[in-house]
Amino acid sequence: MYRALVLCTALATPLAAQDCTEDAMIVFDGSGSMAEMGFNLLDEPRIVSARRAVAEAIPDIALHRRLGLIVYGPGGGDQCAGIDLRFPPMAGAGLRIVDAVDALQPAGDTALTAAVELAAQALDYRARPGAIVLVTDGKETCGGAPCRLAARLAAEAQDLTIHVIGFKVRGAFFAWQSEGASDYTEGETASRCLADLTGGLFLDTETTEELEAAFRRTLGCALLF
Question: What is the pTM of this model?
Answer without folding.
Answer: 0.84
